[in-house]
Structures are given as C-alpha cells and as structure tokens.
Amino acid sequence: MTLPPPSREALTALSNCLEEHSPQEILAWAVKIYGERLAMATAFGAEGCVLLDMLAQLGPLAKLPFIFNLETGYQFPETLALRERIQERYGLTVHFVRPKETVEQMEARFGGPIYHTNPDECCRLRKIVPLRKVLKDFDAWVSAIRRDQTPDRAQAGIVEWDSKFGLVKISPLANWTREDVWAYIRTHNVPYNPLHDRGYPSIGCWPCTRPVREGEDERAGRWAGFQKTECGLHSRRTVRSS
Ligand code: SF4
C-alpha cells in the first residue's frame, strides 16, 4: 500500500525528534514504517557499508527494503568486488540499477566518453535518470550522506521531503562524522572498499575519482579540476531528470 505524502511540517518535527536517536534506531523505524515501500541506495562507500551492517542487525526485517546500487558501468573493480563480499557476509541482495544505455552505446552516441567533457550530463544519464526511474515505485529512500561532506549536504534532515525525486528521504548518518563512521567500521569489522586504504576517502566512478593528498578535503578527489562536488543525487539544485 502506498502511503500518502506526509506534510513538510510533520517531517520537520519528526526529523528534529530523530536527531536524538541512533542511526540503528532511525533505520529500524524506517523499515517498520515503510517496509517494502522503502528503498536503500548504496555506492558501497564507508557510510553505505555501515548502514548495510546496521540493516543486517535488524534480522528478517532487513529483507524488506529494496537495496540497490547505481551501476554506471564506470565503477572500480574493487567496488564491484565489495558488493559480492557484502552480499555474502549479510545474506542481502544489492540490486544493480543500470542506465538505459550501456557505456558502449552511450560513448558511441557521443563519439566517446563524456565524463571529462560534460560530467553533469554523464551523471544525469548514468545516475539521476535511473534513480528517478527506480524511486518512483517507493515511498521513501535511505541515503548514506553526512552533513559535513559538502555544503549541499549540510542542510540535510534526518528525514525530509525529497522534492527532486518525490518521496521521503531518510539519512540516518546525517549527524555523524567521518570519525564516527570509521570507529563503527573498526568496532564491528565491517567490510569496506580497499581503495580507502590507498588514499581514496571518497569513491565514485573511476574516471572521476583520484586519491587525495595530505591535508586535502575528503572529497577533493571527486571530479578534480571541475566545479563539481556532487553527482546531483543529493544536491538541492534542480537537475533535468528525464
Ligand atoms: Fe559519469 Fe563521472 Fe558521473 Fe560516473 S561520476 S556518471 S563517470 S561523470
């Protein structure tokens, strides 16, 4: 059954209340309220791995949400291998959501890759359009963003209306820090991407991710050389999504 959209005021009040709760409690609440109408996106970053570990702790309830990864065709082999490790460890399925065109088809259409000439369009076609398509079947989605990652994310509520995709967005780690995330990973022996140990604090597609240097921001290796810090999934500016 599809739930009616909640009012913005109710979501703000709820979000403020949930600020005091742990990510595990927030996740448990989300699964109980939305069940099969809940989707959970993961790019297998450190935060996403933490959320998958927390979800798995919910037992049979963990099978309810639709867990997915936006498989752009440009992910690192290490990221794809991590998906296998996570599925095996937790017994959860992480579905691939793919763009309409393969990498080969898109590159043939544009006469080559566009990730270094028009990364906004590349992200739109390979991430935003497929995300919009998959989220239309759900009432709420879980993201692994933290407020301290980017200026756009600084405004994220624990729970909020996602006007870009037309459903509720839940960010259980919004008020966590990078240190909180890594403390959880170490304590709970959570599988993570080995690229993190090779200088990649933030990992996206391989053409648009480089290791960071000493003292650089954790996302400095994403779209380096471009005025771009977000693929558009979590930014508040409007991006054409069809
Ligand atoms: Fe394309 Fe880079 Fe965006 Fe991946 S991160 S979809 S390769 S522009």
UniProtKB/TrEMBL annotation:
It catalyses: [thioredoxin]-disulfide + sulfite + AMP + 2 H(+) = adenosine 5'-phosphosulfate + [thioredoxin]-dithiol. It is found in: Cytoplasm. One of its GO terms (biological process) is sulfate assimilation, phosphoadenylyl sulfate reduction by phosphoadenylyl-sulfate reductase (thioredoxin). The active site is at C231. SUPFAM superfamilies: Adenine nucleotide alpha hydrolases-like. The keyword Ribonucleoprotein does not apply. GO terms for cellular component: cytoplasm. InterPro entries: PAPS/APS_Rdtase, PAPS_reduct_dom, Rossmann-like_a/b/a_fold. Binds 1 [4Fe-4S] cluster per subunit. Keywords: Cytoplasm, Iron, Iron-sulfur, Metal-binding, Oxidoreductase. It holds the Pfam family PAPS_reduct. Its EC number is 1.8.4.10. Its cofactor is [4Fe-4S] cluster. GO terms for molecular function: 4 iron, 4 sulfur cluster binding; adenylyl-sulfate reductase (thioredoxin) activity; metal ion binding; phosphoadenylyl-sulfate reductase (thioredoxin) activity. Residues 38-211 form the Phosphoadenosine phosphosulphate reductase domain. Pathway: Sulfur metabolism; hydrogen sulfide biosynthesis; sulfite from sulfate. Catalyzes the formation of sulfite from adenosine 5'-phosphosulfate (APS) using thioredoxin as an electron donor. Belongs to the PAPS reductase family. CysH subfamily. NCBIfam families: cysH (TIGR00434), PRK02090.1 (NF002537). This is Adenosine 5'-phosphosulfate reductase. The gene is cysH.
